[in-house]
Automatic annotation (TrEMBL):
Membrane topology: Single-pass membrane protein
Subcellular location: Mitochondrion membrane
One Gene Ontology term of the molecular function aspect: proton transmembrane transporter activity
This protein's name: ATP synthase complex subunit 8
Organism whose genome encodes this protein: Calidris pugnax
Keyword Ribosomal protein recorded: no
Source taxon at top rank: Eukaryota
Chain ranges passing through the membrane: 6-24
Gene Ontology biological process terms, A to Z: proton motive force-driven ATP synthesis
This protein's UniProt keywords: ATP synthesis, CF(0), Hydrogen ion transport, Ion transport, Membrane, Mitochondrion, Transmembrane, Transmembrane helix, Transport
GO cellular component: mitochondrial membrane; proton-transporting ATP synthase complex
Gene: ATP8
UniProt family annotation: Belongs to the ATPase protein 8 family.
A Pfam family: ATP-synt_8
Amino acid sequence: MPQLNPNPWFFIMLTSWLTYSLIIQPKILSLIATNPPTNKTSTTTKTTPWTWPWT
């Protein structure tokens, strides 16, 4: 079965992961987020109970 031969596919997988890890990932991580998360104060909403007409 030729698909069990890891000879060409292992090299392709290894080079693609090395390319991603060493070249692409640092470029992506160096970008600044346009909308950075901020600490928001949580507001509690006051709910009123529903008045049922048949009670």
